[in-house]
Structure formats: C-alpha cells, structure tokens
Amino acid sequence: MPPQLYVAIAGIVLISLGVTVTLALRIRRLRAEQERAVTRAHEEFARDVHDLVGHWLWLASIKSELAYRRAAGDARLRGDLGEALQAVRHAAHAVRNVSKAHRHPSLHGESMRAQALLTSFGAACTVRMEAAGLSREVSATLGTVVREGVTNMLRHSAVRTCVIELAERDGLLRLTVANDGAPGRAPLPSAGDGLGNLRDRAARLGGTVRATAGEGGWFTLIAEVPRKFSE
C-alpha cells in the first residue's frame, strides 16, 4: 500500500476521532445544561409554592388559632375551629416538606412576608436594612429569627407597631424584631423552633440571640452575628 494511502487513512481516522470527541463533549455539555435547567425549574417551583401558598397558610394558621382561643365559650364552634386549625397546620407542614429541599429562607424574604402579614392584621410594620451582602447562611439564620419572632408576637401579643431592623455596629450584624404588644410580660418565640433553637443557630455562626422587655409593652428579639461571616 502506498505511503500516501497510509497517511490519508491515518488522517481520516484522526479526523473521525476528533469529531467523535467533539460530539461527545457537546452531548455532555447539553446534558449538563439540561440538568441545570431542570434543577432551576424545580427550585423556582418550590420557591413559588412556599412563598405564595405558604404565606396564606401561615396567615390562615395564625388567624384560626386566634379564633380558636376566642371561642372558649362555644364548645361546638371551638371543635370546628380546632379541626380547621389542624387541617391548615397539616397543609402548611406538607408545603414545607415539598419546598424545603430547594428553598433557603432569607432575611429579605422573611421580612417582606412578615410586613405583609402584620399589615393584614392591622399592625404597622417598618423594615429597615442598613447592611447588605449577607451570605446565604447568615441570611437564612436571621430570616428564621424574623419568622419566629413575628409568629410569636401574633400568637401571644396585641401588636400594633412592629420594627424589623438590621444594622452593623463594631463588626457585628445586629437584627432587632420589636413590637409594642406585650405589656407586663415578655413572651418567648413560639415552640415550633423556640428561643433555644434560635440561639443554637446563631451560635453556629459565633453569634447570640436574646429577648428583652422594655417600657410601654415593647418586647424585642435581638440577634447578633459577626460581620466576618457575611460576604
């Protein structure tokens, strides 16, 4: 066989190998892009389910619980409300289970939800954020503090005014969730997570959580996290 033919065959083989490798890499990239697109779609769906459905279930749960307490003198009505409350709680739990694998709570998201919820109860809620660029872990921890603090104040106080504020002082991020609806007493965050759990979460970031009662029925939940843990 002439040498030129060997060279031609070798060239064809090399070109075929090159095309095959290129196609294989292209197929791999397309599959990776498809998987990322599917993952993003799942995350967006889970976020929408939690933010839209979860918000209203949270509101329904709080209002049903308050109605249940006010119906103490009517056994039949109290029984019906108790069943409705349990159904709402089961639905809220199911929504959390569906969305928690893809959703990370955030300080901004929980603050906006809290503001909308308090407004629906006729309370004034001011949100002030003086620090930005929080890491996901810090944002999730502080968001949980907001959610538990607001849920607790709606269940155990007659809140009219609420202030949610994030500030940075002396290298610390300080979140305060304050309300004026606890005259003479200082209710702790709800039993769902509890003050102890909030403290544990903050401690993992080198921070602290504490509750204080002030004059005029003001109750304040304070979380502090070192700035070094933010981005």
From TrEMBL:
TM ranges: 6-27
Record bears the keyword Transferase: yes
Key word Disulfide bond present: no
Record-annotated Signal transduction histidine kinase subgroup 3 dimerisation and phosphoacceptor domain positions: 45-106
One Pfam family it belongs to: HisKA_3
GO annotations of cellular component type: membrane
Gene3D superfamilies: 1.20.5.1930, Histidine kinase-like ATPase, C-terminal domain
GO molecular-function terms, A-Z: phosphorelay sensor kinase activity; protein dimerization activity
The protein's name: Signal transduction histidine kinase subgroup 3 dimerisation and phosphoacceptor domain-containing protein
Organism: Streptosporangium minutum
